[in-house]
Amino acid sequence: MMKANKMETVTFANGMDAEHWKDVNCHGCSIYECESVTEKEAACIAAFYVDVGFVTGEIPVSKVIDTIGIDKDSLCNTCKSKKQ
User: Fold this and answer.
1) Residue 66 CB: number of other CB atoms within 10 A?
2) How far is Cα 37 from Cα 47, in angstroms, rounded to an integer?
3) How far apart are CA 39 and CA 12, in angstroms?
């Protein structure tokens, strides 16, 4: 994750950064699923928007920050909601 400036937190630097974060956090999580097509159906909002971001090129910080967590103005490397 990277920080663009003092006012804006950026989710991931690029698609590889997002894919790495997802490999570390989502693929081992018991609530991860990738079949939902709406936010309401999603078991995990952060995973849903990371998946959507692979298609749209954008991951809205406001949608993932509560699930992922924030540490010193950047998103956490380990999801605070990860369940084994």
Assistant:
1) 12
2) 12
3) 20
The residues, ordered by sequence, that sit 6+ positions from 13 with a Cβ below 8 Å of its Cβ are 1, 2
Measured in whole angstroms, how far is the alpha carbon of residue 47 from the centre of its chain?
Answer: 6
pTM metric for this prediction: 0.74
CB 69 within 8 A of CB 80: yes
Calculate the average pLDDT of the chain.
Answer: 78
Distance CA 21, CA 5 (A): 21
Distance CA 10, CA 73 (A): 9
- Evaluate whether 13 touches 1 at the Cβ level (below 8 Å): yes
Which residue(s) pair with 2 in the sheet? Answer: 10
| pLDDT tens per residue, range 37-55 | 999 999 998 899 989 988 8
Which residues are 8's β-sheet partners? 5
